[in-house]
Amino acid sequence: FSTAIVITEQPASVSVPAGYAFTLRCRAEGRTSLQYQWFCQQQSVCCPVPGATKQDLPITAQQTQLYTCRINDLYKNAIFTDWVKVEVHQCVARGLPPRLWRGEPVIVLNPTEQRVEVGKPLQLQCAAMGVPAPSYQWYRNGNLLEHQKKKKLLITHAKVSDSGTYLCCASNSHGEHWTNAVDIHIEGGETLPPAERLQLCHLVFLSATGKIALLVGNNRYQHHPNLMAPVTDVFELSRLLEQLGFQVVSLLD
């Protein structure tokens, strides 16, 4: 009898300011009349909500809590809805959201500019209100970051290539809203592999009469499209200069 009760509308998570009034909804169908009981969970304690025995649960937001609804029929079949989160923002400026707010995303926390050392964690954070609760998508330099879909963006070991301009889009069924764009600088770290550093140091101590050529081929530019063939160019120039009697060290990126 697992299909004796079918939930046709799950409740939806919301993200709202303290004092905001709204309604959690669930809908179900069964072979007999159905009974409802809402439960809330806060700090790992789950309790029935007194008097909450209807499909709709009116709430005036006070604090962040989780909710679910148990639905049962006259044959003692029972099923629970998904758990949903009612996230309550206590520190939203007065006047937000406006009275005509219909639940579209409103940014309440923007990420901040950061300077992070290579290898250290990079964490960015944002938050938005919305009914239903917004989903999130982070971008770097205008490019979508495939796995960064939460309020918090976390890169455990930052690389120089993680530098750039970040922003996040919060969206729900009513629309989307973008955070401020922030510049992230990843600094430090070893710029050259050990073998190339040793080669470079050796050249520094060569006699002043020696003919030395240092070739640097850059392919990855932060604010410029990648070049067509820097590796090939450096290779060809190295061969030509060596034929002319130069000692050549070639570096890439």
The CATH superfamily of the largest domain is: Immunoglobulins
Average pLDDT confidence is: 86
Structural class: mainly beta
Which segments are poorly predicted (pLDDT under 50) over 5 or more consecutive residues?
none
CATH class label of the largest domain: Mainly Beta
Q: What radius of gyration results from the CA coordinates?
A: 29 Å
Number of strands: 22
> How many domains would you count in the coordinates?
3
CATH architecture of the largest domain: Sandwich
Number of helical segments with 4 or more residues: 2
**Span between termini:** 65 Å
Share of residues in helices = under 10%
CATH-defined topology of the largest domain:
Immunoglobulin-like
Oligomeric form? single chain
Quote the beta fraction.
35-45%
In this structure, how is the largest beta sheet organized? 6 strands, mixed
The secondary-structure element order is EEEEEEEEEEEEEEEEEEEEHEHE
Shape: elongated
Protein name: MALT1 protein
GO molecular function: cysteine-type endopeptidase activity
Domain Ig-like: 3-81, 105-185
InterPro entries: Caspase-like_dom_sf (IPR029030), Caspase-related_regulators (IPR052039), Ig-like_dom (IPR007110), Ig-like_dom_sf (IPR036179), Ig-like_fold (IPR013783), Ig_sub (IPR003599), Ig_sub2 (IPR003598), Pept_C14_caspase (IPR011600)
